[in-house]
Design goal:
With 215 residues, this protein is an alpha+beta fold. The protein has 6 helices and 6 strands. It has helices at residues 2-32, 60-66, 72-76, 107-111, 146-150, 178-186; strands at 82-84, 91-93, 130-133, 156-159, 165-168, 192-195.
Protein backbone atom coordinates (compact mmCIF):
# COMPACT_ATOMS: atom_id res chain seq x y z
CA UNK A 1 0.00 0.00 0.00
CA UNK A 2 2.81 2.40 0.96
CA UNK A 3 4.82 1.59 -2.16
CA UNK A 4 1.74 2.08 -4.36
CA UNK A 5 1.02 5.45 -2.70
CA UNK A 6 4.66 6.48 -3.14
CA UNK A 7 4.59 5.58 -6.83
CA UNK A 8 1.39 7.58 -7.35
CA UNK A 9 2.95 10.55 -5.57
CA UNK A 10 6.10 10.40 -7.73
CA UNK A 11 3.95 10.25 -10.88
CA UNK A 12 1.92 13.25 -9.69
CA UNK A 13 5.05 15.31 -8.98
CA UNK A 14 6.54 14.35 -12.35
CA UNK A 15 3.39 15.56 -14.12
CA UNK A 16 3.45 18.83 -12.17
CA UNK A 17 7.07 19.50 -13.12
CA UNK A 18 6.37 18.64 -16.77
CA UNK A 19 3.34 20.95 -16.82
CA UNK A 20 5.28 23.82 -15.23
CA UNK A 21 8.12 23.39 -17.71
CA UNK A 22 5.71 23.51 -20.62
CA UNK A 23 4.07 26.68 -19.28
CA UNK A 24 7.43 28.45 -18.89
CA UNK A 25 8.49 27.35 -22.38
CA UNK A 26 5.26 28.67 -23.91
CA UNK A 27 5.66 31.96 -22.01
CA UNK A 28 9.12 32.59 -23.42
CA UNK A 29 8.07 31.62 -26.95
CA UNK A 30 5.20 34.13 -26.72
CA UNK A 31 7.48 36.82 -25.32
CA UNK A 32 9.87 36.42 -28.25
CA UNK A 33 7.11 36.71 -30.85
CA UNK A 34 6.12 40.22 -32.04
CA UNK A 35 2.85 41.29 -30.49
CA UNK A 36 -0.21 42.77 -32.07
CA UNK A 37 -1.03 46.45 -31.29
CA UNK A 38 -3.16 45.26 -28.37
CA UNK A 39 -0.38 44.80 -25.81
CA UNK A 40 -2.47 42.23 -23.96
CA UNK A 41 -2.32 39.89 -26.93
CA UNK A 42 0.76 38.21 -28.35
CA UNK A 43 1.17 37.27 -31.97
CA UNK A 44 0.65 33.56 -32.58
CA UNK A 45 3.73 31.43 -32.09
CA UNK A 46 5.89 31.53 -35.21
CA UNK A 47 7.31 34.29 -37.36
CA UNK A 48 5.14 36.52 -39.49
CA UNK A 49 1.63 35.53 -38.44
CA UNK A 50 -0.71 38.45 -37.79
CA UNK A 51 1.82 41.16 -38.67
CA UNK A 52 3.90 42.33 -41.62
CA UNK A 53 7.10 44.31 -42.05
CA UNK A 54 6.92 47.53 -44.10
CA UNK A 55 7.51 47.40 -47.87
CA UNK A 56 11.10 46.77 -48.92
CA UNK A 57 12.13 45.15 -45.64
CA UNK A 58 15.30 43.08 -45.98
CA UNK A 59 15.38 39.51 -44.65
CA UNK A 60 14.38 39.31 -41.01
CA UNK A 61 17.73 38.73 -39.34
CA UNK A 62 19.35 41.58 -41.26
CA UNK A 63 16.31 43.79 -40.69
CA UNK A 64 16.65 43.40 -36.92
CA UNK A 65 20.32 44.36 -37.19
CA UNK A 66 19.78 47.42 -39.36
CA UNK A 67 16.56 48.86 -37.96
CA UNK A 68 17.25 51.39 -35.19
CA UNK A 69 13.58 51.78 -34.23
CA UNK A 70 13.84 55.46 -35.18
CA UNK A 71 10.20 55.54 -36.35
CA UNK A 72 11.02 57.56 -39.49
CA UNK A 73 9.08 55.08 -41.61
CA UNK A 74 6.08 55.46 -39.30
CA UNK A 75 6.04 59.22 -39.68
CA UNK A 76 6.48 58.98 -43.46
CA UNK A 77 3.46 56.71 -43.96
CA UNK A 78 0.49 58.92 -44.96
CA UNK A 79 -2.03 56.31 -43.83
CA UNK A 80 -0.46 55.49 -40.45
CA UNK A 81 -0.30 51.88 -41.59
CA UNK A 82 3.08 51.34 -39.95
CA UNK A 83 3.19 51.23 -36.18
CA UNK A 84 5.63 50.20 -33.47
CA UNK A 85 5.37 46.73 -32.07
CA UNK A 86 4.62 47.45 -28.39
CA UNK A 87 6.76 44.50 -27.35
CA UNK A 88 9.88 45.15 -29.45
CA UNK A 89 9.68 48.69 -30.84
CA UNK A 90 10.27 47.48 -34.41
CA UNK A 91 7.91 48.69 -37.17
CA UNK A 92 5.06 46.40 -38.14
CA UNK A 93 1.83 46.51 -40.13
CA UNK A 94 -1.30 44.82 -38.79
CA UNK A 95 -3.35 44.41 -41.93
CA UNK A 96 -6.79 43.90 -40.45
CA UNK A 97 -6.47 47.23 -38.65
CA UNK A 98 -4.66 49.38 -41.25
CA UNK A 99 -3.16 47.73 -44.34
CA UNK A 100 -0.44 49.05 -46.62
CA UNK A 101 -1.91 51.12 -49.44
CA UNK A 102 1.12 50.77 -51.73
CA UNK A 103 1.88 54.47 -52.13
CA UNK A 104 3.33 55.19 -55.57
CA UNK A 105 6.53 56.66 -54.13
CA UNK A 106 6.74 54.33 -51.10
CA UNK A 107 7.80 57.19 -48.76
CA UNK A 108 8.46 54.76 -45.91
CA UNK A 109 11.38 53.30 -47.85
CA UNK A 110 12.73 56.75 -48.75
CA UNK A 111 12.64 57.69 -45.07
CA UNK A 112 14.77 54.73 -43.99
CA UNK A 113 18.43 55.75 -43.70
CA UNK A 114 19.77 52.44 -42.41
CA UNK A 115 18.80 50.28 -45.41
CA UNK A 116 16.48 48.15 -43.33
CA UNK A 117 14.02 49.00 -46.11
CA UNK A 118 15.44 48.85 -49.63
CA UNK A 119 14.09 50.67 -52.71
CA UNK A 120 11.60 48.90 -54.95
CA UNK A 121 11.02 50.31 -58.43
CA UNK A 122 7.40 49.24 -58.74
CA UNK A 123 4.91 48.89 -55.84
CA UNK A 124 3.48 45.81 -57.57
CA UNK A 125 6.83 44.11 -56.90
CA UNK A 126 6.47 44.51 -53.14
CA UNK A 127 6.40 41.17 -51.34
CA UNK A 128 5.19 41.59 -47.77
CA UNK A 129 3.28 38.34 -47.62
CA UNK A 130 0.56 36.24 -49.18
CA UNK A 131 -3.21 36.25 -48.73
CA UNK A 132 -4.64 32.89 -47.65
CA UNK A 133 -8.37 32.17 -47.89
CA UNK A 134 -10.54 30.11 -45.56
CA UNK A 135 -13.24 28.59 -47.74
CA UNK A 136 -15.29 27.75 -44.65
CA UNK A 137 -15.55 31.41 -43.61
CA UNK A 138 -15.62 33.11 -47.03
CA UNK A 139 -19.00 34.47 -48.16
CA UNK A 140 -18.17 34.63 -51.87
CA UNK A 141 -20.82 31.95 -52.36
CA UNK A 142 -23.36 34.45 -51.01
CA UNK A 143 -22.31 37.10 -53.49
CA UNK A 144 -19.62 38.99 -51.52
CA UNK A 145 -16.83 40.37 -53.73
CA UNK A 146 -15.70 43.29 -51.58
CA UNK A 147 -12.08 42.16 -51.33
CA UNK A 148 -11.89 41.53 -55.09
CA UNK A 149 -13.09 45.05 -55.82
CA UNK A 150 -10.47 46.62 -53.51
CA UNK A 151 -7.41 44.55 -54.40
CA UNK A 152 -4.92 47.06 -55.90
CA UNK A 153 -3.04 44.43 -57.93
CA UNK A 154 -6.01 42.33 -59.10
CA UNK A 155 -4.69 39.24 -57.37
CA UNK A 156 -8.14 38.09 -56.26
CA UNK A 157 -10.91 36.58 -58.35
CA UNK A 158 -14.08 34.55 -57.94
CA UNK A 159 -14.40 31.14 -59.53
CA UNK A 160 -17.94 31.03 -60.84
CA UNK A 161 -19.60 27.65 -60.34
CA UNK A 162 -22.47 26.14 -58.38
CA UNK A 163 -20.64 27.17 -55.22
CA UNK A 164 -18.53 30.26 -56.12
CA UNK A 165 -15.27 30.65 -54.23
CA UNK A 166 -12.41 33.11 -53.90
CA UNK A 167 -8.92 32.37 -55.21
CA UNK A 168 -5.59 34.20 -54.79
CA UNK A 169 -3.17 34.51 -57.70
CA UNK A 170 0.08 34.04 -55.83
CA UNK A 171 2.25 35.62 -58.51
CA UNK A 172 0.37 38.92 -58.17
CA UNK A 173 -0.32 39.08 -54.44
CA UNK A 174 1.92 41.64 -52.70
CA UNK A 175 0.64 40.97 -49.18
CA UNK A 176 -0.60 44.51 -48.62
CA UNK A 177 -3.47 43.29 -46.44
CA UNK A 178 -6.21 45.44 -48.00
CA UNK A 179 -8.26 42.30 -48.58
CA UNK A 180 -7.94 41.25 -44.94
CA UNK A 181 -8.95 44.69 -43.65
CA UNK A 182 -11.88 44.76 -46.08
CA UNK A 183 -13.06 41.32 -45.03
CA UNK A 184 -12.93 42.31 -41.36
CA UNK A 185 -15.33 45.18 -42.02
CA UNK A 186 -17.97 43.30 -44.04
CA UNK A 187 -18.03 39.83 -42.48
CA UNK A 188 -18.49 38.40 -39.01
CA UNK A 189 -15.62 35.96 -39.57
CA UNK A 190 -12.42 37.09 -41.31
CA UNK A 191 -12.03 34.70 -44.22
CA UNK A 192 -8.80 36.02 -45.69
CA UNK A 193 -5.53 36.48 -43.81
CA UNK A 194 -2.16 37.76 -44.96
CA UNK A 195 0.79 35.73 -43.73
CA UNK A 196 4.25 37.20 -44.17
CA UNK A 197 6.17 33.93 -43.93
CA UNK A 198 9.30 35.88 -42.97
CA UNK A 199 12.18 33.90 -41.52
CA UNK A 200 15.87 34.63 -41.11
CA UNK A 201 16.61 32.36 -44.07
CA UNK A 202 14.77 34.43 -46.65
CA UNK A 203 17.01 36.62 -48.85
CA UNK A 204 16.12 40.34 -49.34
CA UNK A 205 12.88 40.86 -51.23
CA UNK A 206 12.42 37.13 -51.55
CA UNK A 207 9.01 35.69 -52.22
CA UNK A 208 8.60 33.10 -49.45
CA UNK A 209 5.08 32.17 -50.52
CA UNK A 210 3.98 30.06 -47.58
CA UNK A 211 1.97 27.10 -48.71
CA UNK A 212 -1.66 28.17 -48.98
CA UNK A 213 -4.49 25.84 -48.14
CA UNK A 214 -6.16 24.65 -51.38
CA UNK A 215 -9.09 26.91 -52.25
Amino acid sequence: MGEEFGEDRRLFLKQCVSSAGKTVSEYYRAAESPSTPDSSKKAPTGIGIGWLRPPGAVEEELFLERCTKCADCLHACPFASIQKDPATGYPIIVAKEMPCYLCAELPCIAACSTKALLPIADPTKVRMGLAVVSRDDCTAGQGCQSCVARCPVEALSIVECDDPYLVVEQGKCVGCGICEETCSTVNDQIAITVISGRTSKNPPHSDPRPAARPT
